[in-house]
Amino acid sequence: MMEIKRLLFLPVLFLSVISMALLNLEKSKHAGEHMEYQSYGWFRESAAWDAKNRRFVVSFMEGGLGQIGEISKEEFTVVKDGDYAGNATLGLEIDLPRGRTLVAVADLFGNNYSALAAYDMATWQRIFLVQLSSTGGAKSLADDVAVDAEGNAYVTDACGNVIWKVSPEGSMVAVISSPAFSSVPAKLPFNLVGLNGIVYHPGGYLLAVHTWAGVLFKVSLDGQHVTAVNMSSFLVMGDGLELLTPERLVVAGMPSARIVESRDDWRSAKLTHRYVGPMHRGATAVTVKDGKAFVSHVLGLGLRKRTHLITEAVFKPVSL
Ligand SMILES: *[C@@H]1O[C@H](CO)[C@@H](O)[C@H](O)[C@H]1NC(C)=O
Ligand SMILES: *[C@@H]1O[C@H](CO)[C@@H](O)[C@H](O)[C@H]1NC(C)=O
Ligand SMILES: *[C@@H]1O[C@H](CO)[C@@H](O)[C@H](O)[C@H]1NC(C)=O
Known about the structure:
Layout: H1 2-27, E1 34-39, E2 44-50, E3 55-60, E4 65-69, E5 75-79, E6 88-95, E7 100-106, E8 114-120, E9 126-131, E10 142-147, E11 153-157, E12 162-166, E13 173-176, H2 179-183, E14 195-201, E15 205-210, E16 215-220, E17 226-228, E18 238-245, E19 248-253, E20 257-261, E21 270-275, E22 283-289, E23 292-297, E24 306-312, E25 316-317
Antiparallel strand pairs: 1-24, 2-3, 3-4, 4-5, 6-7, 7-8, 8-9, 10-11, 11-12, 12-13, 14-15, 15-16, 16-17, 18-19, 19-20, 20-21, 21-25, 22-23, 23-24
Bound molecules: 2-acetamido-2-deoxy-beta-D-glucopyranose (NAG) (3 copies).
């Protein structure tokens, strides 16, 4: 009898400790402005602020896109595309000049399929869907996307460590590869997530982070020049990227967000600020709204519906 009581007691104690810990962690979200929204899904990989329509566009790990109004705080599904059913939608980019959203599509578990999809943001009609993975069976994982001034899209492959360059109409795909992408990761015992977050810098190049190695790369748009940004520390577990200014890059991940600054056009950079948010939610992406960085978290919590969080990154300087 005593044994049974003990067995019953343990899980209850365990659960209470866990929920107490989670509630304590949740308090940290109130440090700044935040958007808490209701959804039916557990996992939301990315959120981007649509400054024109004042809404967040979010990508569903189960595939699809939603929008969250500033007032309603409810997730409303705008895209559910049967042509890649079974795949996840991951990093997304709002291309305001062309009024469209581009999103990386990937087979998260099998790594057999990667694609880029573009949707018109007025009607949510699809503009194009282009397969990026080879049909030869090489493993791939389209993870994040950036768009340059001409409308070319750049999609990172977290599995194959290349960047796919897709023309504005989605008709042509080139592969940007470099030994630099794997020079640091090659020294590591294993490699969980490779090239991940990517942004277009107005200076006319790309910045992309290798999550597992914690290395930031500067990449020319034609892919001819790839260099590791010289940093005194590694940006380990860096995920989504967004520029606050041309000199200040926000890196989402663990901790929730970091700022790295460069004064020499991203030949070198240094870590200057940190934001520790609700870590148990897993920060995956960052977007800029009204000049401030907002971090989206992958995990929703709740019983009937899930509550998801997008929090303002309240940065603290890093003491060196
Ligand atoms: C992803 O989409 C492709 C294209 O429709 C499909 O062939 C593939 O089976 C899908 N992957 C999964 C895991 O469902
Ligand atoms: C997709 O990936 C899974 C897991 O690696 C594998 O078992 C399966 O055979 C793959 N499917 C195709 C069509 O290649
Ligand atoms: C990186 O920066 C350090 C410190 O400024 C410098 O000593 C080093 O030579 C630089 N490395 C490269 C490859 O530029």
